[in-house]
Amino acid sequence: MPTPFLSPELPVPAHFAAGNVGKVWKVPYQERATQARQWAQEQSLRPATADKFRIALLLIDVQNTFCIPGYELYVGGRSGTGAVDDNCRLVEFIYRNLGAITEISATFDTHQAIQIFHATFLVNAQGEHPAPYTLISPEDIRQGRWKFNVAVAESLGIDPDQGQHHLQHYTAELARRGKYALTIWPYHAMLGGLGHALVSAVEEAIFFHTIARYSRPDFEIKGYNPLTEHYSAIGPEILTGPNGETLGQKNDKFFKKLLSYDAVVIAGQAKSHCVAWTIDDLLTDARTHDARLAQKLYLLEDCSSPVVVPGSIDYTDDANAAYCRFAEAGVHVVHSTDPIASWPGINVYSAAA
After folding, report:
1. CB within 10 Å: which end of the chain, N or C, has fewer?
2. pLDDT over 60 (residue 3)
3. For residues 353 and 350, what is the distance between their CA atoms, to the nearest angstrom?
4. How far is CA 352 from CA 5, 85, 101, 312, in A?
5. Which domains does the chain have, with CATH numbers?
6. Buried b (16+ CB within 10 A) or exposed e, 26-54
7. 351 pLDDT exceeds 50?
8. Which stretches of 68-199 are DSSP H helices?
9. Mean pLDDT, the chain, integer
10. pTM beyond 0.85, yes or no
């Protein structure tokens, strides 16, 4: 009889409380570390280095700013409870598959107040800043409805004319590349603020995995450049400025690391933006290396929600259309409640066995 090489599903540890997922609290690290080592012994968990089938779990921006009700850019989806429900399922997925997940990577949207997608970057003729969720088109910039705020030029190390030229170039490039229009978001994911931190229940699950499997998580910072948006974990929206200057670079090292795994499982927020553009970049880069790499990607459809602002914007249809495109490209769209062993393309027995 062949020996399964994929660790079986486990029970969820007793310390997990689903009712706390939508709250911010301090993780009791020492207590959880002791429990994690005991759990590893009870469940016969091996160090992650012993995994024959290596699975990376990529968590996109599972931060308070997006996932906790009342925080700056809470992703509630159409239900209003989207991100909280997603993270309940996500944390349970991590605990049930503690022995199968080799490494967890988490991205952090990381911002300051003066960035191209925050209101203070632009002004109108009356000196007013745009309201949150305002969409800025190339035509808006050409006609002067919105202009670069010259008061922030010195802080950014650019001259006022350069700032205006950059806005015109940037909005035009977004349109040319078929990306979302420049969106003025509420101030969010502010470096040093509570919104920037991981959701407490998710942080606790990552820490528990680290201790139980002796697997150091990989934390990736994105979105710090003030002159470009950075939805994708792989790179900024626009890489070059109007004079060919470099705004940012793709994270090729991270891309190659992810696709060195046998499977990459993806979840996080928001389905319509940072998750979708990460997958899009992964597929684009995968085509350059090997189109079959798309078949390594697994999207936890029930652990991500789209941006929805009632009465204003709703990206649900955009997100669903993107996931249909990804599936057509060979990406597997799965549910967290289904055993990994039942997912398409997963063979629970090693070839050697």
Report:
1. N
2. no
3. 5
4. 10, 40, 21, 56
5. 18-111+188-238+248-266+288-316+327-342 (3.40.50), 119-183 (no CATH)
6. ebeeeebeebbeebbeeeebeebeebebb
7. no
8. 82-96, 138-142, 153-156, 160-176
9. 94
10. yes
